[in-house]
Amino acid sequence: MAEKGRISVNTENIFPIIKKFLYSDHDIFLRELVANAIDATQKLQKLASMGEFNGELGELYVQVDIDKEAKTISISDRGIGMTEEEVKKYINQVAFSGATEFVEKFKDQDTSSIIGKFGLGFYSAFMVSKEVEIFTKSYQEGAQAVKWSCDGSTEFEIENTEKENRGTTIVLHVNEDSEEFLEEATISGILNRYARFMPVEIRFGTEKITEGEGDDSKEIEQPKVINNTDPLWTKDPKELKDEDYLNFYKDLYPMSEEPMFWIHLNVDYPFNLTGILYFPKVKNDITLHKDKIQLYSRQVFITDNVEDIVPEFLRLMHGVIDSPDIPLNVSRSYLQSDAQVKKISNYITRKVADKLNELFRDNREDYEKKWESIGLFAKYGMMTDDKFFDKGKKFLLLEDIDGKKYTLDEYKSLISENQVDKNDNYTFIYTTDEGLQHSYIEGAKRKGYNILKMDSMIDSHFIQNVEHKLEQIQMKRVDADIADKLVEKDEETKHELTEDEQTKLVELYKKALGNENLELKVEALSAEESPVTIVKPEFMRRMQEMAEMQGGGGMFGMGMMPGSQNIILNGNNALIARILKEENEAEAHKLARHTYDLALLSQNMLKGSDLTNFINRSLELV
Ligand SMILES: Nc1ncnc2c1ncn2[C@@H]1O[C@H](COP(=O)(O)OP(=O)(O)OP(=O)(O)O)[C@@H](O)[C@H]1O
């Protein structure tokens, strides 16, 4: 029979493990200790508000000090403090049992983010200290102050001590490897990062201010408060003006351009979340804007890596999210499967979609002006989130080459006359480069087609996505086919050439161009269309682009994939007819070559010696 048992972990090993695991992020010891001090202060405030503490509250703040000579850092609060029993219970037992669990669970993982989860918060002090002392006096009447000390082994000492004020002071005797933490700038930096918006005043160092006016003014030194205890997101949106939001933004991102607009998040059911998300003006370089959202838990800064809480596409936004309900201190894979996190992520997505919809509805003109930036969010969102896609269909705008913007529905009705093919598909014709695709655009315009501009970085992906998700829409780049064939209709232009003549023409071109493998086709186009056109069929071109994106072009190298370029000969063009009738073979080949070069030229594909030859031949013909 199998035997069941428990893996026992010896607490002797804990400190080395904590130190080893957490070495990458030593800074957080200060966050943990200051957060504890703030908790203790808020608990006292709570007791007072419930009438369970009737003593003098006094000035409530957390004081951080460094003493370079004694090599100590201390964190003091005037919160609830602890009795001897409480020290034994909360510091000794909880931490040690928590630490045991910690060691068992995460022996083999990268655990730099899981510290607080198991009540190791306080123990993070040992990452930077060779000895830690706690001086504490409970808020309860007549409480005896106690001193606890520990040198990082599992032995601790606890004794009675004298302490004037209620509350707790933690003294860290900084170890040799951590002396950087005795620098004012280092501590300032850490406090600025983690404690900037903590809810109880934190004092560190002093600052000089001028008091009074004119001759009476004097300089005085006063404690420096490093935090803003009630940041904007904790306030009632109804009381805030645009200016407040813009100022707060400047505060958070001093170097950034003004944002376009923002959303104030505020829910308390089924989870707790507040925050402000800003939409920056984004241009093409998405990566520059990523990872600017800061995540807080009850005003304690946790991280600016919100990968798993905020849907990918919304990571372009800036701002803060504060939620005590996000399990911050657990591993990433856990976060991804956490139902709460999913709900939060869905909530944010919905809010953003609603905001865009509202902007669109309330002020279309302004919305259109901001479309360049908004479009990135909208398209990115529609690609990555199906629910967002459904909402986005209403506020997505398509822009044509004349700069006119349409919703999907508006666009469909615009092209319903002329650009619906024989299978009832709406054909959206787009250009990625107006300069390069100019001759094709002209051709399509002659047919009365509308041409969309799809030239942003995200568009090529977006196109595939839209097609896939929307029925009866097909996207074709303007050079995917000759203008006559872009929208496939039943009607056919009559061929002037017989089958034999067509075969002869193809052979003639192959010979003239000296390449048997060219994909040549004779089509009956209108007489005024060019004699030769090179097209890049939509499907093959996308394959090629994909292959290139995946590096090198796969089995085809950087070259052209077969079938990714077709040469269309216009059987109804007068010049083609003349080439076919030309009895002098050399002359026929010369003309064939020339018409082909013209097609290349219109696409900016005529290069090197081919170009030189073309110029010489042109001069000769002139
Ligand atoms: N400054 C303090 N004043 C009063 N009690 C404190 C103070 N610091 C710590 N404690 C007590 O010690 C306990 C353990 O602290 P520790 O930081 O290890 O874990 P935690 O704060 O409970 O959890 P976490 O840090 O994971 O949020 C606290 O819950 C609290 O009861």
TrEMBL record:
* Family annotation (Pfam families): HATPase_c_3, HSP90
Which keywords, in A-to-Z order, does the entry hold?
ATP-binding, Chaperone, Nucleotide-binding
InterPro entries per the UniProt record, alphabetical: HATPase_C_sf, Heat_shock_protein_90_CS, HSP90_C, Hsp90_fam, Hsp90_N, Ribosomal_Su5_D2-typ_SF
Q: Which family does it belong to?
A: Belongs to the heat shock protein 90 family.
- Identification of the protein by name: Molecular chaperone HtpG
Lineage, opening ranks: Bacteria, Pseudomonadati, Bacteroidota, Cytophagia, Cytophagales
